[in-house]
Amino acid sequence: MADHYDVLGVQPDASDADIKKAYRRLARELHPDVNPSPEAAERFKDVTHAYDVLSDPEQRRRYDAGPQADSPFGGGAGGFSDIFDAFFGGGGGGRGSGPRSRAERGQDALLRIDVDLDEVVFGTHKEVEVDTAVLCETCNGSCCAPGTSPRTCDICGGSGHIQRQVRSLLGNVVTSAPCGTCRGYGTVIPNPCPTCQGQGRVRARRSIPVDVPAGVDSGLRLQMPGQGEVGPAGGPSGDLYLEIRVRHHDVFSRDGDDLLATLEVGMTDAILGTTATIDGLDGPVELEIRPGVQSADVLVLKDRGVTKLRGNGRGDLRVGVQVVTPTKLSHKERQLVEQLAKSHKATKPQLARFQQGMFGKLRDRFFNF
């Protein structure tokens, strides 16, 4: 099994922030919506599992301790006693000394939830429909028909195990195995509940309120303890995990906590400058366009981006400028432009000297917007 730290590409002493950053980077690269290949899907499962373990302090502590922490030889005489009981059916407090409970923890559930980009800015409240196992109202998890109760198993006498004497090289050895009649429960149910067929739970559709925090991103999972499936025989519920997927927006995109957009500016407005009112995700905002603005210039509006997931404040709204040159001019308009060209002695078109800043703007303009 691959090492969780290697899967995320971090060192064993990585901080919680480094682990989260590595997971978000890999999630953006391997998410099925971005990379549909089977190899990416398998890696995404491994990355998500590694993150689930390392992001939880207790699970990470046990993982770092290694398998020896759970080794039957790591706990002193108790571990050896369990092995001895498994082979020779010994009594006392070891395994096989009593019946097992019918009530078991329910399975965890994973559900994808879609949110809009504008809902990510400040967070949102949703009602999520879940088709899952719930407690049977007829028997209340007892598995028995109303008015009846479980009966002690006649074969094992309620112990849940059957002991057999086996002849071996060591002599006669007593072994213990789960009772085949009661399946180790120690009791049988002569009259199962007609609603749940003796399972103590039924499948039903229910609505769960969910508060989606501001700043979430695609691939992030929200854990809702106790909202998964109810266990057999009314056992404790598992957890519900909600995987976030942010829907595509036609105008805005996202870079971390910043929002990105493109503003088309007419040629005359680019020359003379103007003030534009744009519709942000949280309302109208005025944008000053200075005279002589160029295509690929980026105008920054502070604190108009996404609310930070774990922290204070918001990101910025970065608007890339695209100067629109008219393609059709009337005769009079063309004369005016020609007069401007004669009065303004512009240089002839030529290759510009290399400018790192300019290429940075072009990169942001064409790849981020």
TrEMBL record:
Ligand binding (Zn(2+) 2): C153, C156, C179, C182
InterPro entries in the record: DnaJ, DnaJ_C, DnaJ_domain, DnaJ_domain_CS, HSP40/DnaJ_pept-bd, HSP_DnaJ_Cys-rich_dom, HSP_DnaJ_Cys-rich_dom_sf, J_dom_sf
Organism annotation: Curtobacterium luteum
Free-text comment on this protein's domains from its UniProt entry: The J domain is necessary and sufficient to stimulate DnaK ATPase activity. Zinc center 1 plays an important role in the autonomous, DnaK-independent chaperone activity of DnaJ. Zinc center 2 is essential for interaction with DnaK and for DnaJ activity.
Originating gene: dnaJ
Cofactor, free-text remark: Binds 2 Zn(2+) ions per monomer.
Localisation: Cytoplasm
Binding sites annotated in the UniProt record for Zn(2+) 1: C136, C139, C193, C196
Family, as annotated: Belongs to the DnaJ family.
Function: Participates actively in the response to hyperosmotic and heat shock by preventing the aggregation of stress-denatured proteins and by disaggregating proteins, also in an autonomous, DnaK-independent fashion. Unfolded proteins bind initially to DnaJ; upon interaction with the DnaJ-bound protein, DnaK hydrolyzes its bound ATP, resulting in the formation of a stable complex. GrpE releases ADP from DnaK; ATP binding to DnaK triggers the release of the substrate protein, thus completing the reaction cycle.
Zinc finger (CR-type): 123-205
Domain CR-type: from-to ranges: 123-205
GO cellular component terms listed in the entry, alphabetical order: cytoplasm
Subunit structure as annotated in this protein's UniProt entry: Homodimer.
Keyword Aminoacyl-tRNA synthetase: no
Cofactors demanded by this protein: Zn(2+)
GO molecular function, one term: ATP binding
Lineage start: Bacteria, Bacillati, Actinomycetota, Actinomycetes, Micrococcales
SUPFAM superfamilies tied to this protein: Chaperone J-domain, DnaJ/Hsp40 cysteine-rich domain, HSP40/DnaJ peptide-binding domain
Transmembrane segments: none
Protein name per Swiss-Prot or TrEMBL: Chaperone protein DnaJ
